[in-house]
């Protein structure tokens, strides 16, 4: 069969084969249907093969089930309006898409605060709805000071405070790691503040733990003195860290400062995360920590999500900060 | 029109369509796209459809297959443009990311569209000549 034959030009003998009203013979109709059917059948078969190669169904679980894999997102500031980011909802949605396209299912996703910009019910509702799209078994949150405007965090706890203690703190164990999530934003004066109730909670919480247990601490405001002049520190964090000195590995992850920053202090490593909303100036660069408007097209380079992996038996967590795609 | 030229165009169209299918299958399998709502299933359908059309183009040149090749290329190209502008079901990407797959896919899609257009032109030319001859006789 030649290409011209297969192309199905109208032949002289078509009159005798039952030409339809649209100029197609029965033979041509049958031929087209056969090709169409073959294409559909092959598409279906190919889809099954590709799905099998991709390992769908099992592909979204971690490759190594003993490995803890989680994601930190933060500072979404839903409700913010300004030139620094004209659509914080879109950039947060992009961050969620990025988490969902990691290629594995993180054990949990932690939002490290400033979920909203003004603590309104509408903003909290939108945040909860958006985060329900995260493909992970568990989503945890820490309140930022923007989540506790005027009400000390009551609205935040209404939306995200289930199964937490005090103003929203909690702890849990997962794959050999002890996770402590702290609130240092509901009674902010100049600096972050934990308060005696929360410090007592931590004291009791870690009392029965072996010193070999890796400790992971989440907070919104840094637990180290990143830049106290701008409030980028927690006034009573020293008491907390004193309780954690006996542990071999302590990792503190925070938001608030809208930029990547890492500091090591003995057994404790601090990591500040990138936001999903807008950047703030580097410490001391400028009169105040006000939103920075970047040139067009550069915003997403200052935003990001953080993936963290912890392999049992190792001392430190593997942290990867990815720019927002 | 020499049949050899048509055969070459047909095989090149098959190759371009298979290329589009391979890029999308690769992104689906290893690129993490399969977990993205709507986008993942769309990549699966597009890649398997592309492979099917490419395989059948090796055996024949039905108008159904040319239409299929155009559908695969235009669908992928449309999705690419939408994902960089208005978004596809809330999914957005930027520029030629992921690299190099985005660029390869663009090239194969545009090539497939151009090849099918050229193919159609070559097929219609003799018919137009025949029609003119018939009308003048």
Instruction: Write down how many β-strands of chain A occur, each being a DSSP E stretch of 2 or more residues.
Output: 11
The stretches of 5 or more residues of chain B where confidence is low (pLDDT under 50) are none
What's the architecture of the largest domain in chain A, going by CATH? 4-Layer Sandwich
Q: Helical percent range of chain A?
A: 25-40%
Q: What is the mean pLDDT of chain A?
A: 87
Helix/strand/pairing class of chain A, anyone? Answer: alpha/beta
Oligomer type: heterodimer
- How many strand units of chain B? 0
Poorly predicted regions of chain A:
1-17, 57-63
Distance between the termini of chain A: 49 Å
Within the CATH hierarchy, at the fold level, what is the topology of the largest domain in chain A? Purple Acid Phosphatase, chain A, domain 2
Largest sheet of chain A: 6 strands, mixed
Structural class of chain B: mainly alpha
